[in-house]
Amino acid sequence: MKAQHKTSYNLLMSKNQTLIARSLHAVWHPCTQMKHHEHFPLIPIVRGEGVWLYDADGKRYLDTVSSWWVNLFGHNHPGIKEAIKQQLDTLEHVMLAGFTHEPVVALSEQLAKLTGLGHAFYASDGASATEIALKMSFHYWRNTGHAKKTKFISLQHSYHGETLGALGVTDVAIFKDTYAPLLLQSAQMPSPDFRLAEQGENAEQFALRCACALETYIAAHHDELAAFIIEPLVQCAGGMGFYHPVYLKRAREICTQYQVHLIADEIAVGFGRTGKMFACEHAAPHVSDIADFVCLSKGITGGYLPLSVVLTKDEIYQAFYDDRTVRGFLHSHSYTGNPLACSAALATLAIFEQAQVLHHNQNISKNIQTSMQVLTHLPIQHLRHQGMIHAFDVQTNNAQFSRDCYANGLAKGLLLRPIGNTVYFMPPYVINEEDIDWMVKQTALVVQQSL
Length: 451
Ligand SMILES: *Cc1c(COP(=O)(O)O)cnc(C)c1O
Hints:
By secondary structure, this protein is α/β, with parallel strands linked by helices. It folds into two domains: 43-76 and 356-450, Aspartate Aminotransferase, domain 1 (Alpha-Beta Complex), CATH 3.90.1150; 79-355, Aspartate Aminotransferase, domain 2, CATH 3.40.640.10. The chain contains 15 helices and 16 strands. The strands form four sheets. A seven-stranded mixed beta sheet has the order 4-12-11-10-7-5-6, sandwiched between helices. A four-stranded mixed beta sheet has the order 1-2-3-15. A hairpin with a 2-residue loop joins strand 1 and strand 2 (52-55). The longest helix is centred in the middle third of the chain and has 19 residues, at 203-221. The chain is globular and about 65 Å long. It starts with 14 loop residues before the first helix and ends with a helix. The site of pyridoxal-5'-phosphate (PLP) has 14 residues, from helix 5.
């Protein structure tokens, strides 16, 4: 059984098995203890359509997690596909230092309009956006005579990516602890996740209490603080922790009072996931009312191509604008502002404009909530939703719950990836009523099986 994949691929193997064996031989998969694949299925996908993924043997899986939260309008979307194809016929890529092109300009203009933050700096992954925002914040303070502002704070249970800088402000032990000696030191503020509230305390009261703790810390340390980085409204990777928007409002006021930047990491929650275009809009009319920097990625291209961006305001941009080269932001990635990715993003934004997506999503969310009532006979708590994110926590003694649930889900044709004991749905926005009903009923069976 062990290391079977290392033997030659015999002709009796299905197409699936052949691809699995080759993958286990040659590919080092992300966020994975590869040895687990001795027992765990690796699923070879050959095509996607809408909310469904198909493997090489024709079996299909409902993508309830939007392929790690990136897909917005389903797999194989004609509009986004067409935009990429058209761009491919004219310009696939050109370096962005010293050069520019229509897709990156148009996308920056549209993002500026949507967020109120008028200067766009691009990269390809979310973690790179985090790095850029941290570096820009630090460099802004340095350029403006505050060289002592070198430290960052974030929330408990926060997640901002896996590169060294991003991991330094992340607070998920399983990702972070191993690399602790390599990381920049940052302090974590109490999370306003309302599952942590005391009995009798509502989400708003709890958020305000956490904001008080934030204020106490910032008041004492603002001299050395560059920025507070936060996932607005939902701490996704930390277990779909929701909190009251008053926390963002207070955080903004405190950061303004003490001259500390606020970096909104909307990498997971942007582009409609929380019910508004951006999660900051639950706390104020525009992202720019809350954030000095916003990081976007994941859904930005509808899940088609890697792209991330940091948007910031004029005052910050101006602090870098100078005759001296070193005062500029000398950061780059080879694929910065890739035209194919930008055209996918423009096509994605066009869908938001044409299709009344946020309005339509309200109905989908209601359907999911109604269907989820079948789960209430299970040992669960904190059944919750925020826009298109629906979650609940399972009470079980099974220490392997999340892995069992994942495997049992796959067996039933469901791509579910619980975070610890938190099961959640974050499907593409094109999921229909029938699929919602099926998804939730199958999930009830899977959870029951995995207790
Ligand atoms: C996924 C995520 C990141 C990291 O993005 P990558 O593209 O995986 O590097 C950062 N912040 C948040 C909130 C995320 O959910």
